[in-house]
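R.M. (postdoc): so does anyone remember the format we settled on? I'll just put the structure tokens first.
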């Protein structure tokens, strides 16, 4: 006996649950309304048992999404169906999941299957530029409509076409207000400083749209490096405070190019009034030649690290440098991981720091449900592998390294204490 659930007079079959939230469930569905059946994402919302505030938020989410979805970078809302105690929002389905999975899963797969893994964002400047501009244009469209999304993050961006096309979704925190007193509204890794209420405690309101620009900046770091620059832009976060004191701190923990760092400093300003506008940000993105360090920059950082740690003469380091030379950035950065929670409002939450010690906090383990487990290697080797492999992969791809050369690297790596096939374990 079939247990399938149908709505819209049998035209939509709810197949499986693909997401849950505070006020509803998202289903994968098959929509047969049109000539050719298509997959849909259907958000089921309760219509009963809601207080006035919850009803307001629900109506606001639907209205703002409906208004915004005319843009190609916003998930299309096809229709709304009322059925008994529930409201169903029928949307286009991102068949390749969200941007978080696209970044993290592809990186994990590529480490295990170097030859056959699909391209990833890290190291692909044109793909990064194209994807980021899609998101920027979508957010700019929202702002022109007077809408602030307030929760831009990889989990709220769905993908298609092997991650080359991206669409913003989930308008649960969106607002048409130009300022807000709802401090703590957003997601930890992506929330702007002004939204926390910690940097300027006397402020009772903050501008809403500038926070979206900040979130885009963190997503750019995700695309370029596959990591987060810090856990939260709070006075209690050691990594963020190190950046505030010295923006070049980012180049000691992440292999971003000089021009990318300059762009990020225009985004990551504590005062939202000083933050770059979206039109100006677009111009800078188009001008960037490379988002990551080139060979010369990698070499310079390598030399600096060697000089700092062992006080080796420059000539000595130069002599040892080769294409496969490895250096370790002097601090660790937070892994890119799912961010489903929002920070509590400033007045109601404790100032818990990233670490109580003098050094920056350790990188949290990446945890993705259903991901392929990595072979066990030492912590030090894993840090090198996590940070540097994408950039060397990209370099090898650009130079069209032959399979024969990659085979020699694999053979060389298998002779050392680590048998994993990569060119760094020699």
């Amino acid at each position: 006996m079939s247990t399938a659930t149908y709505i819209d007079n049998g035209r939509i079959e709810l197949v499986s649950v693909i997401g849950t939230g505070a006020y509803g469930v998202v289903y994968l569905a098959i929509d047969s309304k049109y000539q050719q059946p298509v997959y849909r994402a259907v958000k089921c919302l309760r219509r009963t048992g809601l207080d006035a505030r919850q009803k307001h938020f629900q109506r606001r989410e639907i209205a703002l999404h409906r208004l915004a979805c005319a843009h190609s970078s916003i998930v299309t809302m096809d229709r709304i169906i009322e059925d008994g105690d529930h409201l169903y929002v029928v949307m286009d389905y991102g068949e390749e999941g969200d941007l978080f999975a696209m970044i993290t899963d592809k990186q994990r797969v590529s480490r295990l299957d170097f030859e056959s893994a699909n391209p990833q964002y890290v190291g692909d400047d044109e793909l990064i530029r194209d994807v980021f501009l899609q998101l920027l244009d979508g957010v700019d469209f929202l702002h022109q409509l007077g809408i602030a999304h307030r929760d831009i993050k990889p989990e709220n961006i769905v993908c298609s076409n092997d991650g080359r096309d991206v669409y913003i979704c989930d308008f649960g925190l969106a607002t048409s207000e130009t300022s807000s007193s709802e401090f703590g509204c957003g997601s930890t890794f992506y929330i702007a400083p002004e939204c926390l209420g910690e940097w300027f405690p006397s402020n009772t309101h903050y501008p809403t749209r500038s926070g979206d620009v900040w979130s885009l900046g963190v997503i750019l770091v995700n695309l370029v490096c596959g990591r987060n620059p810090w856990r939260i832009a709070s006075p209690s976060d050691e990594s963020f405070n190190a950046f505030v004191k010295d923006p070049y701190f980012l180049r000691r923990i992440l292999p971003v190019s000089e021009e990318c760092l300059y762009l990020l400093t225009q985004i990551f300003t504590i005062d939202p009034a000083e933050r770059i506008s979206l039109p100006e940000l677009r111009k800078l993105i188009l001008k960037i030649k490379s988002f990551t360090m080139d060979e010369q920059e990698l070499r310079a950082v390598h030399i600096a690290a060697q000089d700092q740690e062992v006080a080796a003469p420059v000539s000595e380091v130069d002599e040892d440098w080769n294409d496969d030379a490895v250096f370790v950035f002097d601090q660790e950065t937070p892994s890119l991981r799912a961010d489903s929670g929002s920070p509590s409002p400033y007045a109601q939450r404790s100032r818990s720091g990233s670490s109580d010690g003098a050094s920056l906090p350790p990188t949290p383990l990446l945890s993705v449900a259903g991901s392929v487990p990595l072979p066990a290697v030492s912590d030090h080797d894993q840090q090198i592998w996590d940070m540097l492999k994408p950039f060397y992969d990209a370099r090898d791809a650009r130079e069209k390294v032959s399979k024969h050369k990659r085979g020699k690297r694999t053979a060389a790596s298998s002779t050392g204490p680590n048998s994993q096939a990569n060119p760094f374990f020699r």
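R.M.: ...and that's the designed sequence above, right after the tokens. Also worth knowing: The CA atoms of residues 23 and 50 lie 9 Å apart. Residues 125-144 form the longest helix (20 residues).
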